[in-house]
Amino acid sequence: MAEQFGDVSLDVSDDFVASVELHRPPNNFFDIDLIRALADAYDGAERAGGRAILLCAEGKNFCAGVDFTRPAPSGGGAAALYGEAARLLEHGLPVVAAVNGAAIGGGLGLACSADFRVAAAETRFAANFARLGFHHGFALSVTLPSIVGQQAALDLLYTGRRVAGDEAARLGLCDRLVGADAVRSTAHALAAEIAASAPLAVRSIRATMRADLVGRIRAALAREAEEQDRLRQTRDWVEGVRAMAERRTPRFTGQ
Q1: CA separation for the pair 41, 12 (Å, rounded)
Q2: Peptide linkage before 26 cis (omega within 30 of 0)
């Protein structure tokens, strides 16, 4: 059964894997409408009898976060966007992300909202927020340290550097490292293996393992949204976005 939720499609296969795919190629930049559609698709997956979600994306890159070179859309700002993101992070079904190309900024946050990530050596991960004069978001304050550990998370957040698939695998950011042409099929196979387990047991285990995350995620999202709104008023933010658009090293002044 296939359904469409804006730029997100849902297709539940016979093995109870719900494939949820982003359709904004090549970079799959997101906004509040896309994240809302994604959360709606997760809800649809549950209604359709899906037992595990395969999160994937059409195009060159998994997700490059928000396109900061374009005017900010109306709709309540970061707080409203992260309200929809919380729906993803609090959803009951396990999620396996097939990370093709790159997961950058908020796209990394989306990848880290999943239980598992499958990637290739060519995949790139980056929490590039500080390189934009910005605060990280999408609950990376909680999810990233829980995946790679506090020190590795600080490294990635402070430097904003890009991490290739092989380093991501060493850090634990990538759970399966495969050839670029096998990322989606491997992610589907992992999701199917999860879906083959007793669904009530899997949900119960997942709820136990993630129980402390829910409150921490809500608090982190509120803090992240507040800091993002504050830092958008700084000169460093303007410089960071301009430097990214001009493909040059930013010259920050601390103002």
Answers
A1: 11
A2: yes
Q: How far apart are CA 99 and CA 63, in angstroms?
A: 8
Per DSSP (E only), the strands in 171-218 are 176-178
Q: Identify how many contiguous H helices and E strands the chain contains and give both numbers.
A: 10, 10
Enter the tokens of residue 200: 């009530």
The set of residues, in sequence order, having a beta carbon less than 8 Å from that of 86 and lying 6+ positions away, is 139, 217, 218, 221
Task: Please tell me the distance from the alpha carbon of residue 182 to that of residue 180, in angstroms, as a whole number.
Answer: 5
133 near 252, Cβ under 8 Å?
yes
pLDDT digits (tens, 9 = 90+) for 203-255: 999 999 988 888 899 899 999 999 999 999 999 999 999 999 899 999 999 99
Domain regions of the chain by residue span: 2-180
Evaluate whether the domain defined by 2-180 bears CATH number 3.90.226.10.
Answer: yes
Top-confidence residue, 152 or 214:
152
How far, in Å, CA of 129 to CA of 225, rounded?
Answer: 13
Show contacts of 231-234: CB within 8 Å, 24+ apart.
Answer: 231/133, 231/134, 231/135, 232/134, 234/133
Q: How many CB atoms lie within 10 A of CB 4?
A: 13
pTM for the model stands at 0.94
C-alpha separations of 229 from 39, 63, 79, 111 in Å: 23, 22, 9, 23
DSSP strand pairing (8-12 vs 17-22): antiparallel
Contact criterion met (CB below 8 Å) for 106 and 66: yes
